[in-house]
Structures are given as structure tokens and as C-alpha cells.
Design a protein that fits this description.
globular, four-stranded parallel beta sheet, Rossmann fold, about 220 residues, about 10% strand, 9 helices
Length: about 220
């Protein structure tokens, strides 16, 4: 199991690891576990990273309500379920760091992945709002917006992967950004800039451009984190 293997590697490196298998979309048990961890050892940094992707099939048929809403439940509500239990505690301590993982897809909805785009746009807005709210209280918030990088999740998207990074490149960028408490960790910047421009350009132009991008997604064997 990937979680156990990662936990073992961290312990071998000298870390104190506590692991649990929880559904981030199920707020109550997740919140209880997080509060128990914080009671034992106050949490200074929380990274809300669990996420799944889906998308339209090769036929171009809609994702369907179950698939679209599942992405919102895990990606957006799962982020909130991870962060919210810690907010009163961090505010009381006057310190803490929060990292939420969005996507460059959160800047402009992608026609081949509407549910994922919606969920990641929500995560981006949530993180931006928290950052403004919490900074005067001594809590720093970083929003990570990655583009394509080598991963099983990326491999499921059939089509071009513009400006794709290696996994090592992506992890270095994210770690450096977290270490520096950057407000936004966005990469590749050119791709993000293009999507931001697409969002502010006339819709009839960008809608036509987006329709020229042909993508579909292979069925998921499982979730990605």
C-alpha cells in the first residue's frame, strides 16, 4: 500500500509518523482524527493535498452527476474538512501554516474536465480568501496551482501535456515555495498566464480555442493524492 510504504520511508529517515486511512469527504471522523493529532502535538503546518480527477470520455459525453460531484466532494470539501478543524486552534495560538493544492485548471474551466476544473477553482478561491482572513492572525496560507507533471494522474489524460514537468521538478518547486511561505506556488507560470488571459479574454474567442483542444481521460483504477 502506498501510504504504508511512504510512512515506512519517513520513519527510516527519522520522522515520527502517524498514519490513518480516512475519507476526506467524511468530515466528522476526519475532524476527530485531526483534533486528536493536534491535542497530542500542535500542528504547525497542514497540507491539504488529497484529490481525484475524472473527465469526459472519448465520445465527448458529459461526466455525469456522480462523477462530477465526487470530484467536488473530495477535492474541495475534502480540503475544507482538512483545514477547518485546525483554524480555531491555530487562531488561538496565533501561528500556523496552511497549504491547499489547487491547479492551473482552476484559472479557466477546461472542457475535457469540468468537474475537476470546478473543484480546483473552488480550492483556489478558498485558499485566497483564507490567506487574506488569517494573515493578520499570524497564520500564513499558500495556494499551490500546478500544471502537468509526471504522475499516474497525468498519464490518464490522453492528449498533449503542455509544458509538462518531471516529478522531481514539481516537488522541488512546491517544497521551495512552502519553505518560503509563498502566497502562491504556480507552475509552469507561462501555462498559468495563458489560462488567466483566456479567462479575461472575450468568451467567444476562448471557447473556440478550448474546443480545438482534444482530450479525453482513461477510466480511473483508483484515486490519486
Amino acid at each position: 500500500m502506498r501510504l504504508s510504504a511512504i510512512a515506512t520511508a519517513c520513519r527510516q529517515a527519522g520522522a515520527d509518523v502517524r498514519e490513518a486511512v480516512l475519507d476526506v469527504a467524511d468530515a466528522e471522523p476526519l475532524g476527530r482524527w485531526i483534533e486528536q493529532l493536534d491535542d497530542a502535538t500542535p500542528i504547525d503546518l497542514v497540507i491539504a493535498n488529497a484529490g481525484v480527477s475524472a473527465g469526459v470520455p472519448q465520445s465527448g459525453a458529459p461526466e455525469g452527476l456522480f462523477t462530477a460531484s465526487a470530484q467536488v466532494k473530495i477535492n474541495l470539501l475534502g480540503t475544507m474538512n482538512t483545514v477547518e478543524p485546525l483554524l480555531p486552534r491555530m487562531i488561538a495560538r496565533g501561528s500556523g501554516r496552511i497549504v491547499v493544492v489547487s491547479s492551473v485548471a482552476g484559472y479557466r474551466g477546461l472542457p475535457y474536465s469540468p468537474g475537476y476544473s470546478a473543484s480546483k477553482a473552488g480550492v483556489r478561491m478558498y485558499g485566497d480568501a483564507l490567506r487574506s482572513l488569517l494573515r493578520p492572525k499570524g497564520i500564513r496560507v499558500s495556494v499551490v496551482c500546478p500544471g502537468f507533471f509526471a504522475s499516474p494522474m497525468t498519464d490518464r489524460f490522453i492528449g498533449g501535456h503542455p509544458m509538462k514537468l518531471t516529478l522531481d521538478q514539481a516537488t522541488r518547486i512546491v517544497r521551495r515555495g512552502i519553505d518560503r511561505a509563498q502566497r502562491k506556488i504556480v507552475f509552469p507560470r507561462l501555462l498559468a498566464f495563458e489560462l488567466i488571459l483566456a479567462d479575461i479574454a472575450p468568451s467567444f474567442i476562448t471557447d473556440w480555442i478550448m474546443r480545438q483542444i482534444h482530450f479525453h481521460i482513461l477510466p480511473a483504477r483508483g484515486t490519486e493524492s
